[in-house]
Amino acid sequence: MPELSPTTRARVAAALRAQRIETASWAYANSGTRFKVFAQEGVPRDPYEKVADAAVVHRFTGVAPTVALHIPWDRVNDYADLARHAKELGVGLGAINANVFQDDDFKLGSVTNPDPGIRRKAIDHLLECVDVMDATGSRDLKLWFSDGINYPGQDDVRARQDRLAEALRETYDRLGPQQRMLLEYKLFEPAFYATDVPDWGTAYAHCLQLGPKAQVVIDTGHHAPGTNIEFIVAILLRAGKLGGFDFNSRFYADDDLMVGAADPFQLFRIMHEIVLADALGPASGVAFMLDQCHNIEPKIPAVIRSVLNVQEATAKALLVDADALRAAQDAGDVLAANAALMDAYHTDVRPLLAELRADAGLDPDPMGAYARSGYFEKIRAERVGGQQAGWGA
Fold it and tell me: Which of 77, 115, 151, 338 has its CA 20 to 30 A from that of 240?
């Protein structure tokens, strides 16, 4: 790594120390594809054990202080007690994710279903999730809808948008003054003819109509191949409507692999837009969340590796020579402008991150530290009996 000036090193270090990356409770549970869920030893059996695993990730990385919950997968009798448990372990409860896609009643849609009774059931669940937020102190309600249609003529496309708008409005009006609604979009699956929230434009239009507490969340796996995601990031930042990310990686569709696994350069380009907009720190309101399912790899090391991947992409983005880049852009020097990005991208930032961890009292090698900690051996021995948590539970 080239020698950094004291000013650059201090700037980069401060930004990286302020970064926060939220992990997902379901990442610690058993998961798989539509064909098979592969069980692993030591997997959590309840939300309390999921939170414990998330706390371990934060202990070794220092930048993952919250864990997102999924309702009803993480339903408990006392959410305040779960929040207390998290606090005792050194973490907090983050975004609350609603689930209106796994009930038989939602076969033809949830909040856009033509049956008003089913729509009511779906909206009541969204309101329940806000109740959970009140109990946990969570700021963000994250909404993803599988709603859509498979065949032309199956339902009225405009009517479904009206129903969606009504459901979002009722939920939005229930939010507290410090709470937000993050609306996610997805190109397809399981609705293959027309998905009701298929792209950032649809999500943005609804959020714009709702008001300032409604923001768009970008899942990096929810786009058509070749989509310029960093362009979407720039547009939403410019409009003040980027609420956060669900980071993962994909090869074909929504694979939910470790972030940066398929295209680390794309992750760098995304983080470059974030840095340009000075939107990296918590004060920006952009939430950096992982949304991943670790099917064949060990759960906790996979989450740690994902956090490190985001950190590395961020560090490279912070090393872009902004003055040189702007000068090349203003001069119309295409090659020099591209080189300013590529020089930063090709920098090995791992020594810098290791140094920052050591300065913070952390092991410079989180992956190695976890392997040496004995935590996996401990949970493998203790978590025997009961029902392992898994996709959908």
Answer: 338
Beta strands in 82-235 (DSSP E): 92-97, 140-143, 148-149, 180-184, 194-195, 214-219
Residue 374 corresponds to which tokens in the numbers above? 């004995």
Could you give the C-alpha distances from 25 to 18, 54, 67, 90, 92, in angstroms and in order? 22, 7, 6, 15, 12
- Quick: pLDDT tens for 292-350: 999 999 999 999 999 999 999 999 999 999 999 999 999 999 999 999 999 999 999 99
Question: pTM of this prediction?
Answer: 0.96
Q: Strands, E, within the chain: which ranges?
A: 23-24, 31-32, 37-38, 66-70, 92-97, 140-143, 148-149, 180-184, 194-195, 214-219, 242-247, 287-290
With contact defined as beta carbons under 8 Å apart, do 53 and 25 qualify? no
Query: What is the dihedral sign for C-alpha 170, 176, 178, 184?
Result: negative
- Asked if residue 95 lies in contact with residue 22, where contact means CB atoms within 8 angstroms, the answer is yes
Taking alpha carbons only, the member of 321, 353, 390 closest to residue 44 is: 390
According to DSSP, the β-strands at 214-219 and 180-184 are parallel
The residue with tokens 């960093």 is 230
Please report, to the nearest 10 degrees, the dihedral formed by the alpha carbons of residues 36, 40, 46, 51 taken in order: -120
Please tell me the distance from the alpha carbon of residue 139 to that of residue 298, in angstroms, as a whole number: 30
pLDDT in tens, 254-270: 888 999 998 999 999 99
Task: Decide: 216 and 207 in contact? Cβ < 8 Å.
Answer: yes
Residue type, 225: P
- Measured CA angle at 393 (ends 65, 196), to 5 deg: 85
User: Tens digits of per-residue pLDDT, 291-300?
Assistant: 999 999 999 9
| Residues in CB range of 152: below 8 A, 6 or more apart | 193
Do residues 63 and 19 make contact, with C-beta atoms less than 8 angstroms apart?
Answer: yes
Radius of gyration, alpha carbons of the chain: 21
385's tokens: 């009996």
Structure tokens at 143: 């909404």
